[in-house]
């Protein structure tokens, strides 16, 4: 089967990770946990923590400027900015408009936030693909930026060990050859909303004293349920995305999955039939940075020479919503 010609490609990626490191040993002093438990159950050794006064937009700005510098793109060249984040600077206006202003692109493009938790980057790539395919945009900046440490309950050992902060950015442009997005498969399941949520802080439960006392404004997760769904959904989405591109697991040069837990990644890879030698993993250094994990991982994989020209790449993601998806692309 002849490969269909891609409409868009990722022209470049960049990342920003804050300098401060929170190691498992530091967490041992904060909650009843151990380095051994965290390593064995998650694969995480350390994560990056943004300083108190650094926001999601601050990190997004740094990643955006870095990708613009790499490609020589001027602010006025950008037609659309999509910011994916579960940790916006404020509820109103969007973090995307904040990033737009910081990078000097105010008024010359439109900008909005896309909230799909850890799957945000893949959903945003699909929106960018549609905008470019329709001819309305030529250059889309996708920025995934997360200050997960700002919504974590630091007294809950089952979640506070998992997350970190950081940002990744990708410049999406029309494809003029065989490189780019070949297929995608995205789904969500609102029936499972409560297994991973922040119960309060929105209109369903505005913040009041009781909320603060019960810590309901912070992240809650039924880890075991999320784990099971994540493996099944990512593996199936991966297989369907490959099928959509007329490919099989044997064709995949590198799988870049959402980085939440190394056991989830290993199980997903096993179900999808892809050996771990062909799976990119960096969560031991960063933990789960929600929607930023994939652009950060792509940027590191490219830097490490793991994304050869023409490589077939499979992206898979999963997050709150529940949301999940997969994408194949020719690099
Ligand atoms: N240190 C020590 N013990 C712990 C810790 C800890 N940090 N956390 C939990 N435990 C204990 C539990 O209390 C439990 O003890 P018990 O048996 O006495 O009750 C025991 O360890 C086992 O707990 P489980 O929850 O069954 O542990 P599990 O092996 O499932 O690992 C984890 C927990 C790491 C959270 C796992 O379920 C997981 O990774 N889930 C998925 C998370 C994820 O992928 N999220 C992605 C989406 S995030 C987003 O969209 C924003």
Strand order of the largest sheet: 1-7-6-4-5
Top CATH class of the largest domain: Alpha Beta
- Return the string of H and E elements: EEHHEHEHEHEHEEEHEHEHHHEE
Percentage of residues in strands: 15-25%
The hetero compounds bound to this protein are: acetyl coenzyme *A
CATH level-two architecture of the largest domain: 3-Layer(aba) Sandwich
**Please, what is the CATH homologous superfamily of the largest domain?**
Thiolase/Chalcone synthase
The number of strands is: 13
Do you know the CATH topology of the largest domain?
Peroxisomal Thiolase, Chain A, domain 1
Mind describing the biggest β-sheet?
A: 5 strands, mixed
Count of runs of 4 or more consecutive helical residues = 11
The dominant shape is: globular
Helix content: 25-40%
Walk me through this protein's architecture.
With 331 residues, the protein is α/β, with parallel strands linked by helices. It has two domains: 169 residues, 3-Layer(aba) Sandwich (Peroxisomal Thiolase, Chain A, domain 1), CATH 3.40.47.10; 150 residues, Peroxisomal Thiolase, Chain A, domain 1 (3-Layer(aba) Sandwich). The protein is 33% helix and 23% strand. The strands form four sheets. It has a five-stranded mixed beta sheet with strand order 1-7-6-4-5, sandwiched between helices. The chain has a four-stranded mixed beta sheet with strand order 8-13-12-11. A two-stranded antiparallel sheet has the order 2-3. A hairpin with a 3-residue loop joins strand 12 and strand 13. The model has no long low-confidence stretch (mean pLDDT 96). The chain binds acetyl coenzyme *A (ACO). Acetyl coenzyme *A binds next to helix 2, helix 6 and helix 8.
């Amino acid at each position: 089967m002849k490969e269909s010609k891609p409409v868009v490609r990722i022209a470049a990626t960049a990342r920003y990770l804050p300098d401060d490191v929170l190691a498992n040993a530091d967490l041992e002093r904060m909650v009843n946990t151990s380095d051994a438990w965290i390593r064995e159950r998650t694969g995480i050794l350390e994560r990056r923590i943004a300083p108190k006064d650094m926001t999601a937009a601050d990190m997004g700005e740094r990643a955006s400027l870095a990708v613009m510098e790499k490609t020589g793109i001027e602010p006025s060249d950008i037609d659309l900015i999509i910011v994916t984040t579960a940790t916006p600077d404020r509820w109103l206006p969007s973090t995307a408009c904040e990033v737009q202003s910081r990078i000097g692109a105010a008024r010359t493009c439109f900008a909005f936030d896309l909230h799909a938790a850890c799957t945000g980057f893949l959903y945003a790539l699909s929106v960018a693909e549609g905008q470019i395919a329709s001819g309305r945009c030529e250059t889309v900046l996708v920025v995934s930026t997360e200050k997960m440490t700002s919504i974590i309950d630091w007294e809950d050992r089952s979640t506070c060990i998992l997350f970190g902060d950081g940002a990744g950015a990708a410049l999406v442009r029309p494809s003029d050859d065989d490189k780019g997005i070949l297929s995608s498969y995205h789904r969500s399941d609102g029936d499972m909303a409560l297994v991973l949520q922040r119960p309060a802080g929105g209109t369903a439960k505005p913040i009041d004293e009781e909320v603060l006392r019960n810590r309901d404004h912070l992240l809650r997760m039924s880890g075991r349920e999320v784990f099971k769904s994540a493996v099944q959904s990512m593996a199936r989405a991966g297989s369907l995305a490959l099928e959509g591109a007329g490919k099989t697991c044997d064709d995949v040069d590198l799988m870049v999955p959402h980085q939440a837990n190394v056991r989830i990644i290993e199980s997903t890879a096993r179900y999808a039939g892809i050996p771990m030698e062909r799976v990119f993993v960096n969560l031991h250094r960063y933990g789960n940075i929600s929607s930023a994990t994939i652009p950060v991982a792509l940027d590191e994989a490219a830097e490490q020479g793991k994304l050869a020209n023409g490589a077939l790449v499979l992206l898979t993601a999963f997050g709150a919503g529940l949301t999940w998806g997969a994408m194949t692309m020719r690099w």
